Amino acid sequence: MEQSTFIQQASTEKNKAATQSAALQEPRIIRYTLIFIALAFLAFFIVLPLVSIFITAFQKGVDVYFAAITHPDALAAIKLTLIVVAITVPLNAIFGVMAAWALTKFNFKGKNLLLTMVDLPFAVSPVIAGLVFILLFGSQGLFGEWLFAHDIKIVFALPGIVLATIFVTLPFVARELIPLMQTQGTSEEEASISLGASGFKTFWYVTLPNIKWGLFYGLILCNARAIGEFGAVSVVSGHIRGMTNTMPLHIEILYNEYQFAAAFAVASLMSVMAIFTLIVKDIIAWKSKSS
Q1: CA atoms within 13 A of residue 106's CA, in its CB half-sphere
Q2: Could you give the CA distance from residue 37 to residue 47 in angstroms, rounded to a whole number?
Q3: Distance of CA 143 to the CA centre of its chain
Q4: Confidence tier at 39 by pLDDT (50, 70, 90)
Q5: How far apart are CA 145 and CA 107, in angstroms?
Q6: Could you report the per-residue pLDDT of 215-252, keeping only the tens digit for each?
């Protein structure tokens, strides 16, 4: 009798699940229409511009293309961009981990204020961020006179570009880690501390392995934004050829001078970097799911 009742209940649950699954299935024409609209939208706004960049870059031949990306000004822009990325990304990684650790592992007054400050660069225009650094470190700025007296140059030099890039890329690592660490809770860290491990050992052997894929993902996003940042860097750089022009600024100058093939050649190089970044991001996402 009990066995018959169990079989009947299992059959009922199975039929209920099948009914719910069928109810969630949209008609085939709607599914195909939505897929077609999504693919057409992506093709028009993503693929077509990307392809046009490479077509225009090679329009005047391979020699012109390589002459554009090996020009001294282009090489200086590439070198400066990589230097800025090499400084910005590690600093944001350290800050992001520390901010996420503080916000998710401790309770303290001002916690919401700190969270709001982390999100602030998302809300503020990069151009405004650049103007703020001009007001602080420019010749007429708050610290301008003192900096001039000590022969320290921040605006229109590498330090200003690094500061502006750090500001606009600051939330990317922290924002990837905060929800991840909130989901994981504090039980493993508390167990580690109660067994006598130090704070550093707890972080290195317990916390870091749990957040490593989220950390890599945040670093990839931070790296991509640092390479392509234009607004804030444009304000603080001064647009000095071969000295303070990053790759986006160099592309703008070439385009304004009607050197379209050269501008698109450098743009294609940035596109290759972006595509490589996306591939790495997808590999990390796949690794994080499989682990």
Answers
A1: 12
A2: 14
A3: 31
A4: very high
A5: 41
A6: 888 898 898 889 888 888 989 988 888 888 999 999 99
Query: Any residues with CB less than 8 A from the CB of 21 and at least 6 apart, and which?
Result: none
51-90: b (≥16 Cβ within 10 Å) or e: eebbebbeebeeeebeebbebebbebbbebbeebbebbbe
Nearest to 287 by CA among 228, 204, 220, 225: 220
pTM for the whole thing?
A: 0.80
Q: Which of 183, 143, 193, 140 is nearest to 163 (CA)?
A: 143
Other beta carbons within 10 Å of 247: 24
Amino acid code (one letter) for 118: V
Please report the DSSP string for 162-179 in residue order.
HHHHHHHHTHHHHHHHHH
Helix spans in the chain (H): 2-24, 28-42, 48-57, 62-69, 72-105, 111-123, 126-137, 144-149, 158-169, 171-184, 187-194, 199-202, 208-228, 231-237, 247-256, 260-290
Query: Which residues, at least 6 apart from 170, have a Cβ–Cβ distance to it below 8 Å?
Result: 92, 95, 96, 118, 121
Q: pLDDT tens for residues 95-120?
A: 999 999 888 888 888 888 988 888 88
Nearest alpha-carbon partner for 235 in 171, 155, 139: 155
165: left (phi over 0), alpha (psi -120 to 50) or beta: alpha
The percent of residues above 90 in pLDDT, for the chain, comes to 30
**286-291: long-range pairs with CB below 8 Å, 24+:** 287/213, 288/213, 288/214, 288/217, 291/213
